[in-house]
Structure formats: structure tokens, C-alpha cells
Design brief:
Elements: E1 2-7, H1 23-34, E2 43-50, H2 56-70, E3 75-82, H3 89-100, E4 104-109, H4 117-129, E5 136-141, H5 150-162, E6 166-170, E7 176-177
Parallel strand pairs: 2-3, 2-4, 4-5, 5-6
Antiparallel strand pairs: 1-3, 6-7
């Protein structure tokens, strides 16, 4: 597991500048920002599950863009888990406990029909433990990998609904709010 704490304060020269990044990422950030009350928070907690090492950098890019959008105040505490780390039940339980209290849960995957069984188990574990505080589920799909992720998106949309969460999707084309 990789844990990072990032200051969400942009460098001084960027404080008043529009965020840079692909238009797709900027559009997703705008949608996310419109629904957040995080500006008043001292800390934002994010937990990410990444399919593999190639899907991990999207989470970092997402978090940096979030920092640029939010501006000066909160600190971002980010824990990242590779899917392979979530295979052992004990680690899956630890990761589920972290996700249950997180403000933001990110799932970074390649396009495919469904998630591996251990990831579905992890999702149901944190969903069962989750409290009622507002949170966001973000699905980041790899723009390089081709495939149909429609059923996975529907599954994650349903998970977000069960958890009373905002759900956002980033694909190679454009972000889709649900």
C-alpha cells in the first residue's frame, strides 16, 4: 500500500490560474468541485484501488488536478492499493476500513466487463461499514485499453447509489456524471 499526504495548496504562481490538464480531466474536476463541501475541511481522505502499476498514475494525476481545483485549504491524505494487494483477506479488510471512512474512493481500471471477485468483496466490505457522511466514488478508465466497461460502470453506479455517494466516471471520451 502506498500512502501519500499532499498539500492541496497550489504553488503561488498557479494560485489564480485555471488548472492545466486534458479537457476531459478538467471537466471531471469541474463536476466534482460543483458537488463538494471540501473547501472548508482541513483534510480530505482518498482511498484508491488500482488494477495494476499502469493504472496507478491516473490516480496521481486526478489528485493533482483536484488540488488545483480546490485551491488553498485542505490537505489530501491518499492511500493507494493495487488489486493484487487486496487478494489476501487481512489486507482487503484493512483497505475496506480505510475506504469506509474516506471522503473519496477512486477505482482506476482498464476497460473490461467486470471487476475481479476480490475487488467486489472489498467494495461490499467498505459499503457495509460506510457511515452516512457525504462521499464520492470515482471510476477512472484507462484510455489506452479498449473494451466494453458498460456493465462495470452500471455496477459501480449501483454501489454509489447504495452508499448514497456521488458517482463520477472518467473514460477516454468524456466524464459522465451519474
Amino acid at each position: 500500500m502506498l500512502v501519500n499526504k499532499l498539500s492541496l495548496t497550489p504553488p503561488p504562481e498557479r494560485a489564480q490560474v485555471e488548472p492545466e490538464g486534458p479537457p476531459v480531466v478538467n471537466a471531471l474536476m469541474t463536476q466534482l468541485q460543483a458537488n463538494l463541501t471540501w473547501r472548508k475541511a482541513k483534510q480530505i481522505t482518498a482511498v484508491a484501488a488500482c488494477e495494476d502499476a499502469s493504472s496507478e498514475p491516473r490516480v496521481g494525476e486526478f489528485c493533482l488536478n483536484l488540488a488545483r481545483q480546490l485551491g488553498k485549504s485542505p490537505e489530501l491524505s491518499k492511500a493507494m492499493w493495487l488489486f493484487s494487494e487486496l487478494r489476501p483477506a487481512q489486507l482487503r479488510s484493512v483497505a475496506a476500513s480505510e475506504a469506509a471512512v474516506a471522503d473519496l474512493i477512486i477505482i482506476s481500471v482498464h476497460h473490461q466487463e467486470s471487476l475481479p471477485e476480490e475487488i467486489n468483496d472489498w467494495i461490499h466490505m467498505w459499503l457495509d461499514q460506510k457511515d452516512k457522511k457525504p462521499s464520492v466514488l470515482v471510476a477512472l478508465f484507462d484510455p489506452v485499453w479498449q473494451g466494453d466497461s458498460t456493465s462495470m460502470q452500471a455496477y459501480l453506479r449501483d454501489v454509489a447509489k447504495q452508499g448514497n455517494m456521488e458517482f463520477l466516471v472518467q473514460t477516454e471520451e468524456f466524464p459522465e456524471p451519474y
